[in-house]
Amino acid sequence: MRVLVVYAHPVETSFCAALHTRVVDTLRAGGHEVDDCDLYAEDFEPRLSREERLGYHDVPQNRDPVAPHVDRLLAAEALVLVFPVWNYGFPAILKGYFDRVFLPGVSFRLEDGMVSPNLSHLKRIAAITTYGGTRLRAFVLGDAPRKIVKRLLRATSPGARVDYHALYDMNRNDRATLDKHLESVARLMERF
Questions:
Q1: Which of 102, 133, 142, 188 is the least crowded, having the fewest Cβ atoms under 10 Å away?
Q2: Dihedral angle at the C-alpha atoms of 131, 133, 137, 138, nearest 10 degrees?
């Protein structure tokens, strides 16, 4: 399977970096073709420009500023997101990726004023993430990343299996818990 891995963390020694490495290595060991998109290493520009916003609905010209990223998404059969949750949301670079790449004509179509899904080629979607706080705290604050992955991405990709694999309370976990989480991520990727 062709898997696009979108990674969003700036620190190469972070636990999220270890998760990213485990995801990519496990997928490759399983025989998958992996397109590893490290948004920070690729210096992805997250800001939607004025011109992009003005041309947002002009399909297919709207994809021109991010055409390589659109092509990578459209070539994938699966999408894996690896990111930390910061301030109960996505890192800005990942939010910008969604704003600039998940465009009309790419992730959805507008037909007679109605939104229709457009990523039906995706068979699997997974999010691998960490939270500094507890699951309860994230729930109370609405847990936007979980909702976006489990609801919005599922809506743009009908028929895709969607997994959300989160490690909560990172600020208080010990090494054994972190190792256990790495292994559970590997098992999830082995089932791809």
A1: 142
A2: -10
